[in-house]
Design a protein that fits this description.
By secondary structure, this protein is α/β, with parallel strands linked by helices. The protein contains 15 helices and 7 strands.
Length: about 350
């Protein structure tokens, strides 16, 4: 065996388990850092003010958007993107007057530099398949040992319990599921009590999921589905629709339309959950990404992902502007180690 391969194997067997143990301990704590608390009030005010400003402009487009009018969709997406940009640009002094804290102003300026939108390597269709497979394997192990899959399950548990009323076997469908790592985890945890489905627009991702399901003896239904056209899920009686760790891949207007579509099609409700950007998370992930798995793809995409992620208040803004929402209850919340969710529950 070549020396480099021998070293890699030694690291995988001896170093990785120790690093995973450290990550498991960290996963029990909120690691988003002090800026979250320092700017929470400001973000909440900015979110409410932005909703008041943009909701009247978005509302007249709703019917045409739901009818698939291309011009209306383009205008809607532009307005929602402008709303998120406007919220991010709100300075604490703009909201609080001359009494605004200079420290809060400084923290806001520092925080604003964190966001950066650039493509991830694995989003490139021409990316080498062997490298993609290896990076996804590392990502799956990372999600397990950091408790991210457990966090997602906890966020959707209330919806699953509501769907189980009367002895029904709920159907949970994960859209934009990629290689289906979460879906496989849910199939293991729920067993036969819940039917698990996963979909994506990329067949090459789904093929990886099917292979894993067959290897592990798990029952997961994989299919190509457009997260903006989920009529087939409604026809099959899907109870819960999830979208996990994928929101940052989409522009705000598309996320709003995905939320509205999922809320209309799911029998019980939907849950959108993703990481939240923070300097602390960025630093930890950069360190772990450099040490864990020894793959530049995982390191680059993990760091890039965090800088593209949304704050809880930004997702609350996007949900408030979502078109065609039925009568629902919308909750946002935080979950360790560094995640936020929007949980949408149908009201009877």
């Amino acid at each position: 065996m070549p020396r480099a391969s021998m070293l890699s194997e030694v690291l995988r067997r001896r170093f990785d388990p120790a690093l995973e143990a450290v990550m498991r301990k960290l996963s029990r704590h909120d690691v988003r850092g002090p800026l979250r608390a320092a700017l929470a009030l400001h973000r909440n005010k900015a979110m409410r003010r932005t909703i008041e400003r943009f909701a009247p402009a978005v509302a007249p487009l709703e019917h045409a958007v739901l009818q698939g009018d291309g011009a209306a969709i383009e205008r809607f997406d532009t307005l929602v993107a402008e709303a998120v940009t406007a919220m991010r640009a709100e300075r604490p002094r703009d909201l609080d007057g001359d009494g605004g804290s200079r420290l809060t102003e400084l923290l806001h300026a520092v925080d604003a530099r964190l966001y950066r939108d650039r493509p991830e390597l694995m989003d490139d269709p021409s990316f080498p398949e062997d490298e993609r497979t290896h990076a996804l394997d590392v990502l799956d192990r990372f999600n397990h040992c950091t408790g991210i899959y457990e966090t997602v399950k906890a966020a959707i548990d209330p919806l699953v319990e509501a769907a189980s009323a009367g002895g029904k076997r709920p159907i949970v469908h994960d859209v934009a599921a990629g290689h289906g790592g979460l879906s496989l985890y849910l199939a293991e945890r729920f067993g036969e009590r819940v039917a698990i489905e996963a979909s994506d627009l990329r067949e090459e991702y789904l093929a990886l999921g099917r292979a894993q399901a067959a290897e592990r003896g798990l029952s997961v239904r994989f299919s190509v589905e457009d997260a903006l056209a989920l009529g087939g899920l409604e026809e099959r009686g899907v109870d819960v629709i999830t979208c996990t760790q994928a929101i940052h891949h989409f522009p705000p207007g598309m996320i709003a339309r995905m939320m509205g579509e999922a809320a209309r099609r799911a029998r019980v409700g939907a849950c959108f959950i993703d990481g939240e950007r923070s300097y602390t998370s960025l630093g930890l992930v950069a360190l772990v990404g450099a040490l864990y798995g020894r793959t530049y793809t995982f390191y680059y995409d993990a760091v890039t992902s965090i800088r593209r992620m949304f704050y809880e208040e930004e997702l609350a803004l996007v949900a408030a502007l979502a078109p065609g929402m039925p009568k629902v209850r919308v909750e946002t919340g935080i979950a360790p180690p560094s995640h936020v969710y929007v949980r949408i529950t149908r009201e009877s």
